[in-house]
Amino acid sequence: MSAQPPLLQIEGLTIDLPPQADRRHAVQNLSLTLERNQILCIVGESGSGKSLMSRAVLGLFPSRHVQPSAGKIMFDGEDMLRVTPERMRDLRGNRISMIFQEPMTALNPVLSIGAQIEEALAVHQRVDRKARRNRVLDMLNAVNLPDPEKILQSYPHQLSGGQRQRAMIAMALMMEPDILIADEPTTALDVTTQAQILKLIREIQQKRGMGVLFVTHDFGVVAEVADRVAVMQHGHIVEQGLAVDVLDHPQHAYTQALLGSVPSLTPGPKRDFGSDKVMLAVQGLKKSFVSGGGFFRGSSREVKALDAVNFEIRRGETLGIVGESGSGKSTVARCITRLLDADAGSIQVDGVDIAGFTQKELRPIRRRVQMVFQDPFGSLNPRRTVGQLIAEGPIVHGTAAAIAWERALELLELVGLERRSADRYPHEFSGGQRQRIGLARALALQPDILVADEPVSALDVSVQSQVLRLLSDIRKKLGLTVLFITHDLRVASQVCDSVAVMLRGKVVEYGAVADVYANPQHPYTKELLAAVPGKNWSHGREGLVLA
Amino acid sequence: MIWRKSATFITWRLLQAVPTVLVIVALNFLLLQLAPGDAADVLAGEAGSATPEFMAQLRQKFGLDQPVAMQLLIYIKQVMTLDLGYSFRHGMPVADLILSRLGPSMLLMLTVFFVSVVFGAFLGSVAARNLNRWQDRMISILTVLAYATPVFWAGLMLIVLFSINLGWFPTSGMQKVAAFYEGSAKVVDIAHHLVLPALTLTLFYLALYTRLMRASVLEQYSMDYVVTARAKGLTERQIARRHVLRNALLPVVTMAGVQAGALLGGAVVVETVFAWPGLGLLAYEALFSRDLNLLLGIFFSSTCLVVLVNLFVDLGYSLLDPRIELR
Amino acid sequence: MKQGLSRFFRNLPAVFGLVVLLLVMAAAILAGLLYPGDPFAMVGKPFQPPLSEYPLGTDMLGRDLLAGILHGARTTLLVGALATLIATLVGVAIGGLAGYFGGHLDNFLMRLTELFQTIPFFLFAILLVAVMGASVGSVIIAIAVVSWPPMARLVRGEFMSMRNREFVQACVSLGMGHTRIIFLHILPNTLSSIIVTGSLMVATAILIESGLSFLGLSDANAMSWGFIIGSGRTVLRTAWWICAMPGMAILLTVMSINLVGDGLNDALNPRLNSA
Question: Which residues of chain B make contact with A300, given a CB cutoff of 8 A?
Fold first, then answer.
């Protein structure tokens, strides 16, 4: 890049883990360089050590059992691992700043935004109150926050996720640092908000010539912002280089596997279901939630979670419901499985309207519609064995215990787990394995329709691709009709035949996925597709492609 | 703006309290019915000085010849007009009697409340910041002991040590009898008498709030915003003072509100042990003289007091926590 | 569960508490063997100090204090355990129903719970015993009536959070009925919290019982630690041991229960404790 010395140089960094951890080092013998005026992305899956490494620069170790045992982190001639605590405090928030993943918890809930941002300044510089306030307002403007005066006095819970993250960025930039470390800053945000924040970070970096260390698990984000990229696995850097090189010509097997797991944004060929019967038809589905209100209490708020939703799915077809948070996509799933009662509309399962059925009338229908959930940790009862969890459904519906148990063992094999898993407890399995168990549980009643509510959103990308492949195989084998809820447009493009885009309770676009992606009609769909990080990079690529 | 909001909040809460109070009154009535004997016997107290004519008058006044529902309504009316009956033993209307004893009780309880919360918060943060070191261990041992000590026994033992053996404090009462102090001398005298009773009652709550504060501070230190504060370059002291303290206090304040009712109960035994002339001692005297009516009156007024205390604690809490909106 | 037990036994204060508690229970059981007969019986000269002819001395009527304390252990533990058992059952039932079904039932049950929590509980207990007459039964009922709200609150909170967990939603979507879900799925997951809260409730029950008997509201036929302390009040200057000894017994018993309860909490709900 330039003949100037690098901004940040990490040499041979090793961070130890406490003795009871599953490996000895979180990070081992790691070396990397951050040049001036450059965005370096550190990409890896959970457990790679990327987050810890980014925190090591500012000495923000989570506990005294997790400490560096070797290496140097050189910044401006000083070794960050060996500076005095006073010097470290001097540098923090001043020359090197950091922003974090979850802006809601990263901000103090009882202090105003203004107070917290001012603090970043007041700690390092003596400036009188009026000047301080003005500088904060300037910074709030610089991060494109509307109505900065109001934001100053607001509290974190009064802002949206995107606004909070902008406030955090403003806070980090108050002292005009040389380096910004960003630890998964957009992971908790909706895709459209993420696009805005990524754009903001890029602009700021370019305007101020900063060096940015950007930690992420999403290769799309890497494609969107990175100048250079380093890939981490199990505490080591397996590959690093210019972003264009690594993304298009990965050398290391792990990088190749990871890139191969990212679903391609280009949908496959259309499958025709015109001749098959309609398995699930939803007409005019409405659901509102009322909060606040009550006697004497003044205004109550009504939130229209679902506002006249219509769609239908034919046998063997997979319909994707795509949207951001608050779109109502999860509410649809819960209304269809009758975990929630809709206010109005019809839900026809193979011609029979179940919307008004009592719980008793629903029992036989439950065999036909089953659900797979999002959270691999919360969706399995920790006190039941895997076998019990899978066999319970059939037993409740009258199947003899022995037969149900045998069926459970078969299902475990079907989802790629060993038969003896049946006697073990959920906590003994990984996230991906738990989702497989959840799938087996759903299949135990031999349903016709499977409702999958963000089934892979909580999984690492490599595990995600395995589970998606499994899902694809099983639905083909069993002729399943699938309603697939997701916020991830890449996943939807590979898994779904048709897609319904939802915004604030309404379906704004509906059609075959190939048509919608190639030719979006509604402005929101266009915005959504434009916001997918790395969309230009992935076009024409072979990522994960499901038959 | 904040005063207006507080005023509406207070009015709204007082309105909400009305059904609660009514239920308490009905509960009182129920207990009256459950007690052995006729309600008039109870109401007249077992002073034995009620003449048959008075009893007949009483029966008529309370409509004891009428159906139960009617009696309930009459009883409610009585209570709501603050006619809580008459105490023969003390020779005054119950309402007046309660009012006269309210002051000393409030003095004792407010002292205990503030001392236990303030010192509890302080000790708890000291323990948390010195986790597993000698300060923490010592505070732990003391809280474990204090938490297990029966209040009345603590009072007695404190009397044995500080009054009887060391002679530092008086054994009982609120003021030196027959001394008739005035002005600042009176205040000093009362304060002198207040020390042991307040200390006794404080012990338990001090232990409670210390433990709670310690756990709360530890929890706050594991929060993300602490990492953010460090990343900004704040010193540990600044983080403790500006960020952690206020968040950690919230559960302690909540608990203090919840304990208001318990505090009144604890006062009964403490006032009994120290002959402190408050509502608690009055309750004991009522018990001793089988004056159920007086006891019910105290019960009713204490409950109203708790409602008021809860209201103020909620008000205070909303000042600390901006996430809570006064509605 | 096994992991929990081994964690418990590595916790020194908890084990200490358990040992003391077992000693107290042994005392209660063996009281009849060691000191048969009536603990109210006058056996010796009054006002004998401890470590004289009688290990803990005698009271103003010449009753053996040690016998009184050993027999008192029975009453204390019995009242504490039974009152807690009743309060737990009531609290779990009310809290569970409120948390699981929500809606109007929840509103009503919560108003009820709030009401009971507003009432000064000790005064209420005094009232109840005064009205019902002082007997072991009425004391147990009074304590139970006064103790159930915190348990109900806790169980309601747990049930409400469980209700929204995905594994419970999975049960509903599999077609399970309410009874099965509550007893086979939700309750086992809340059991550890109930056990911890229940054990700490026993300590509170014992403190309430001793307070009541100190004020004279105890069964005249059952020896009680609070009663002994109450009776020794007037001779505090001269025979301080009459008040001191039973009080120590209460302190040790309550402390041991608290230590065991805390130990159970750390064992069953492990959290990262050290920074």
Answer: none
How big is chain C, counted in residues?
A: 275
**Domains defined for chain A, CATH in brackets:** 304-345+359-534 (3.40.50.300)
Q: Do C211 and B144 touch (CB under 8 A)?
A: no
Say if B325 is an interface residue toward chain A (CB within 8 Å): no
Domain that holds residue C145: 14-42+56-267
pLDDT of residue C273: 42
Which among C180, C185, C275 is the nearest to A63, CB-wise?
A: C275
Count Cβ atoms within 10 A of the Cβ of residue A543 and give its class: 0-12 exposed, 13-18 middle, 19 or more buried: buried
Interface membership of B240 toward A (CB under 8 Å): no
Whether A397 contacts chain C with CB within 8 A:
yes
How many angstroms separate the CA of residue B223 from the nearest CA in chain A?
7
User: What is the Cα–Cα distance from A425 to A423, expressed in whole angstroms?
Assistant: 7
pLDDT of residue B30: 84
pLDDT, one tens digit per residue, over A382-435 is: 999 999 999 999 999 999 999 999 999 999 999 999 999 999 999 999 999 999
A95 Cβ contact partners less than 8 Å away, ≥ 6 residues apart? A75, A76, A175, A177, A178, A179
* Beta bridge partners of residue A105, listed in sequence order: none
Task: Show the tokens assigned to B291.
Answer: 């004056």
Considering its fold, how many domains does chain C have in total?
1
For the question of an ipTM over 0.90, the answer is no
Q: What is the pLDDT of residue B241?
A: 92
- What are the tens digits of pLDDT across the range A318-366? 999 999 988 999 999 999 999 999 999 999 999 899 998 988 899 889 9
Prediction pTM value: 0.89
Under 8 Å between Cβ of B174 and B189: no
Q: Which of B21, B137, B156, B258 to mutate to test the interface with C (most CBs of C within 10 A)?
A: B156
Q: Whole-angstrom Cα distance, residue C151 to residue C157? A: 10
- Test C130 with B292 for CB contact under 8 angstroms: yes
Cβ B234–A119 below 8 Å, yes or no? yes
* B150–C211 CB contact, under 8 Å: yes
Q: Assess contact for A429 and A421: CB atoms under 8 A.
A: yes
Q: Is residue C51 part of a domain?
A: no
Q: Give me the CATH number covering residue C71.
A: 1.10.3720.10
- At residue C201, the pLDDT reads 94
Structure-token pair, residue B14: 């007082």
Show residues of chain C in contact with B283, CB under 8 Å. 123, 126
- Cβ–Cβ gap B223/A58 under 8 Å: no
Long-range contacts of B45-54 (CB under 8 A, 24+ apart): B45/B87, B45/B88, B45/B89, B45/B289, B45/B290, B45/B291, B45/B292, B45/B293, B45/B294, B46/B289, B46/B290, B46/B291, B47/B88, B47/B89, B47/B289, B47/B291, B49/B88, B50/B88
Nearest-CA residue of chain B relative to A101? B224
Q: Does the beta carbon of A89 lie under 8 angstroms from any beta carbon of chain B?
A: yes
Going by pLDDT thresholds of 50, 70 and 90, the confidence category of residue C79 is very high
Q: Would you tell me the crossing angle of helices B2-34 and C121-132 to the nearest 10 degrees?
A: 10
Determine, yes or no, domain membership for C249.
yes
CB-based contact (8 Å) between C233 and chain B?
Answer: yes
CA-angle at A464, arms to A461 and A467, nearest 5°: 160
Q: What are phi and psi of A339, to 5 degrees?
A: -80, -20
Q: Using one digit for the tens of pLDDT, what is the confidence trace for B3-21?
A: 777 788 888 888 888 888 8
- pLDDT over 70 percentage in chain A: 97
Tokens describing residue A356: 């008004």
* CA-based torsion, C119, C120, C126, C129: positive or negative: positive
Query: CB–CB of C170 and A363 under 8 A?
Result: no
| Of C270 and A111, more confident | A111
A393 touches chain C (CB under 8 A): yes
Closest CA–CA distance from residue B153 to any residue of chain C (Å): 6
